[in-house]
Amino acid sequence: MFTQGSASIVLDGIVNLLKPPGMTSHDAVAAMRRMLGTRRIGHTGTLDPGAVGVLPLCVGKATRLVQFIQATQKSYRAEITLGVETDTLDAAGKTTSVTTDFALPVSRLVDVMMSYQGEILQTPPMVSSVRIAGERLYKAARRGEVVERPPRPVHIYRLQIVRIWPEDALDLEFGSRILFDVDCSKGTYIRSLAADIGRDLGCGAHLSFLVRTASGPFHLADTKTFEEIREIIDKDGPEAVLQPMEAGVAHLPRFDLTRAESKQIGHGQMIPAPHEAVDQPYVRLHDETSGKLIAIASGTRRSGRPVWKPICVLESSNEGAGAS
Q: In the chain, helix, strand, coil percent, each to 5?
């Protein structure tokens, strides 16, 4: 809740933040809490401190949508540097291995990178926030410990080379840099992908640059820096920096409800649904009169009949779900 003068403004929506380098996702949330004057803010997927790019922040009731935004596809532009491995798998770490004597044809790089398209198993890096035995891996890494991490399935939808430096080199050599784009599923670690590519090439590599270009429906071109957000707040108020909650779940099928149905869903009750509902794991339900997003629901059956089962209620009847 933002207090402006003597008036209190309820804030519900999503900020498409351009996270700067050197800031953790948690730090970004803390900074936005101070700017908007509310503690009810959550991020939608960790972005490494050294990385920049799209970091959607959910404000107010939109925090209930975090799990649905986190599950969406992510896109990155990344750079790997050949011949140097680090303990963090990126440029921020200490060098652990250097290989200088190699010359690889670009065709070899293409073959290796293409082998990672599709579903793969990936081991989370030690500097990640994954919990093993109740502790986040990066805490063990700070103590110099290496914990066994079971590989996890992730999906690489697209992997495309954009540019290679030096541009006039006939082969890939020590210090060669490869810029590439990747579209991937939730939970994919680009630094691990960079290190794995270097391992398969036989020369080692680390992630030397990373920008997240998209997180689900949120794109780099539409992000705002902290400075831009401050200017907007000062000029037009905090609501002006927020996108509506439904922007975060625009990828889900939409169904409209009558006022009576909206009230039932607002109370957490199941309601009759179309027959195709049983094939919809998640949908967004809107009130047909006000257009408001009422809930996220899943299709199931009750007594043999298809029904909408509310998973996340955003507007209860007490909050005026059916109000115009």
A: 25, 35, 35
Average of pLDDT values for 154-179?
A: 96
Phi, psi of 109 (to 5 degrees): -60, -45
**Cα–Cα distance for residue pair 4/12, rounded to 1 Å:** 16
Active site residue 279: no
The DSSP-derived string for 68-120 is HHHTS-EEEEEEEEETEEETTSBTTS-EEEE-----B-HHHHHHHHHTTSEEE
Which residue out of 48, 90, 183, 196 is catalytically annotated? 48
> CA 159 → CA 109, 235, 294, distances in Å?
12, 41, 37
CB 116 within 8 A of CB 193: yes
Contact at 8 Å (CB) between 92 and 67? no
DSSP element (H, E) containing 33: helix 25-36
Parallel, antiparallel or unpaired: strands 205-215 and 177-184: unpaired
- DSSP 3-state assignment of 201? helix
Span 177-210, pLDDT tens digits: 999 999 999 999 999 999 999 999 999 999 999 9
Enter the pTM of the model: 0.89
Are 59 and 41 within 8 A, CB to CB?
yes
Amino acid, res. 176: S
